[in-house]
Amino acid sequence: MLIGLAPTLFRARPVCLHTSIPRFSPNSHGFLTITPTRLFIPAASLRRDENKEVDDYAELKEKVENLGICCNSVTPEEYTRLMCPKCKGGRSMEKCLSFHMSSKRNSALWRCFNIQCGWAGQIPHYSMASDGVHQLGRMNFPRILTEESLKLEPLGDMLIAYFSKRMISKDTLKRNHVMQMAGDQIIIAFTYRRNGMLIGCKYRTLEKRFWQEKGADKVLYGLDDVREADEIIIVEGEIDKLSVEEAGFPNCVSVPNGAPQGIASKELLPLEEDTRFSYLWNCNECLEKASRIVLATDGDLPGQALAEELARRLGKERCWQVCWPKKDELSSYKDANEVLVNLGREALKEAIECAVPYEMQNLN
């Protein structure tokens, strides 16, 4: 019986410099193996393409630097916040220029989000102007977020007391930049950051009503805590991430949008259609470095569905699953915060350390 292993999100095989036509043939053990027929691409052609990309990037970099934009820290296909050479960040002197470079590093576009400036432009991969630089009108850029623009302020006494009842300390709240929305209502603000930069915010009322800032990139909450981690713990909510940190594991992140009601389909969607789990693709650079991923989702059916969806994309062979302690003969505690509040830090730490391989836990 042949078992086809579908490629996982972060364990895909390297791209080969050939195309393959599979052909079945028996091996020495009597099993069928797949022998690819390779269509060779001349190395000279590949070298020409590589040299062209290097030349295009050098030309692009020169044009960008002539405008005063320093793009050394830019990652292709990502929006990077830089210092605007026109307004120098205005009064706040913040990095208010959103800059984007194409994957082939041969074109770029940018816009300054300082209201007093608004400078924008692009450099296409073909020269339609004498200098190859075009001024732009309105463009669809991700929003530039700041604590001031979102009207955020430090947590007040009421919310500090609320988190204290949930066994989460002031130090943990401060380290994770948990804030509140200014105004008469009591609204928690979980700030999402990448490389220290505010890129999103999720709000929560004490009555458990949730909403997020529109137009922000979807990423894992606590992303900067796992940038170089070999082991990553994934939970279902921001408060669970804070709880796991209280148990001694800062290498923890939370999904941004909770759990699905069930497994969507047996087949994984193509990347461009897999919008619900786009935060995994957006955090690929960090996740692919981990050799062990501990899934500590909720113990209910949606939580189990989330664990399955994550394991399918991350690779089940490197996933472990947490089994929450028993509450009584018929039920178990639901999540990390329930365990922390009812059983304490050591019990939560033990539950995470006793995670079992995902494939073993889900044999049935």
From TrEMBL:
<feature type="domain" description="Toprim">
    <location>
        <begin position="230"/>
        <end position="319"/>
    </location>
</feature>
<dbReference type="InterPro" id="IPR006171">
    <property type="entry name" value="TOPRIM_dom"/>
</dbReference>
<dbReference type="InterPro" id="IPR034154">
    <property type="entry name" value="TOPRIM_DnaG/twinkle"/>
</dbReference>
<dbReference type="GO" id="GO:0043139">
    <property type="term" value="F:5'-3' DNA helicase activity"/>
</dbReference>
<dbReference type="InterPro" id="IPR027032">
    <property type="entry name" value="Twinkle-like"/>
</dbReference>
<protein>
    <recommendedName>
        <fullName>Toprim domain-containing protein</fullName>
    </recommendedName>
</protein>
<dbReference type="GO" id="GO:0003697">
    <property type="term" value="F:single-stranded DNA binding"/>
</dbReference>
<dbReference type="Pfam" id="PF13662">
    <property type="entry name" value="Toprim_4"/>
</dbReference>
